[in-house]
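Q: I'm a student working through a structural biology exercise. My instructor gave each of us a protein and asked us to get a predicted structure, then write a short paragraph describing it. Mine is Sialic acid binding lectin 8. I'm not confident about reading structure output yet, so if you can add a plain explanation after the tokens, that would really help. Here is the sequence I was given:
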Amino acid sequence: MLLIAAVTLIASATSTHADTAVAFSAGLTHNVNISHAENVVYDKVFTNIGGGYDNNTGIFNVPTSGIYVFQFHTLSRQDKSSWLELYHNAYYIASIYGHTVNDFASGGNSVVLKLTKGDQVYVKAVDKSYGVDTNIYGRQNEIYSTFSGYMIAPVYEEIPVG
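A: Happy to help. First, here is the predicted structure for Sialic acid binding lectin 8. I'll explain a few features afterward.
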């Protein structure tokens, strides 16, 4: 028991906020029409502290185990729909949906997750077979659809000795 406490204390004393800070935020700068279950790739990276977000795949790869907050928002094109889902390692977590006749529709959601280094979190469009074509609005100077996440606390796993 004493050895575990000493290891935890040493890890805490040698770690600084700069060592463990993780945060990313990305947005969509163009219209996207997605008819299959595929990742939304947010191309405009606002911040990527810790280097976890990949703007080529739309996947956040967890660089440090911890407790994370994720937010995702969308704006569907006029007279269109958007149905997006947040996934953690291929497991469904949460959805957003928006549809309005003769107008734009928005949706947003937030979650808090305990994640392990190497886990993946991403936003995926729902397949058209469920009755919805996802049409996301975006422009270089009008970014309404975003995906963001940040770690609120690192998690250090204690390994019992003996």
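A: Here are two points you could use in your paragraph. The two ends are 10 Å apart (CA to CA). Residues 1-16 have pLDDT under 50 and may be disordered. It's a good idea to check both against the output above yourself.
Q: Great, thank you!
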